[in-house]
Design goal:
about 325 residues, alpha+beta, four-stranded antiparallel sheet, 9 helices, about 20% strand
Amino acid sequence: NQKRYESNNNKMMENKEYNITNLKLNNNNLGPYLAGLIEGDGTITVQNSSSIKKTKYRPMIIVVFKLEDLELANYLCNLTKCGKVYKKINRNYVLWTIHDLKGVYTLLNIINGYMRTPKYEAFVRGAEFMNNYINSMKIVHNKLKNMDNIKIKPLDTSDIDSNAWLAGMTDADGNFSINLMNGKNRSSRAMPYYCLELKQNYHKNSNNNINLSYFNIMSAIATYFNVNLYSRERNLNLTTSTNKTYKTYYSYKVMVANTHKNIKVMEYFNKYSLLSSKHLDFLDWSKLVILINNEGQSMNTNGSWELGMNLRKDYNKTRTTFTWFHLKNTYLENK
């Protein structure tokens, strides 16, 4: 079944111009959104200062998108005027890669003060590298003359609903699901739920003052939606033809399934919209939540079961229709 895309823009670009104050950005929204997105599906790579490698490289920021979200990758690239979007041949993902000095500097400034997870450690190393580079090279690099040191801000501990961070994180790692449950001892039900799952611990840390655990942020999200935080353990089979390997993966999971609590999920994502194709799933998911909230569960024609069954035909992994009108004049831009 061939997937159909309705596109506003399919341009890949690299923009070398730099003036962060002239960009058409609403940083009160863009900063938190990009921080959440990068903390979910992004990487800030910084060479260790003690590395013995002769070749020294600058920090790099890479964000991974599934292939269906190419439009979002291009949109963010165009909006920030940073980096390039690469579509890998025969791969189901695309990469937004920022490795030029000014691009990395711009993004680090944008997300400064909005990081909420242990990946803040990588941000700090990246910002410190940039500051040291700017201070040591300003004399010989004229292009650095308008670049001030990044004033590193602490982790964001503001209320979850105070900004768009959770929208970025959910575009990266969250999902909206619809389960159809055939009950033997109770009536069949269509169950919409929101889920976010993150690993328990950060893989590395060069700053002993930074908490390695994802417990605090996941606990804050669970508290916001008034649900329990679950700890999960999964055994992953990583066996190849030449090597038999198993790895245990530990994660924290927030799941919202109660109808009234799903309404709060709706309220947040109506305020801070998702920007990936998950926005389309959220809109469909919301239809079911509203129907159940207003009329309850029903097996009747036009009831919750029928709606859930019909929505699942073009939803999440089965989705074949994509529109991108929600990327026009988003809340990330200055109006």
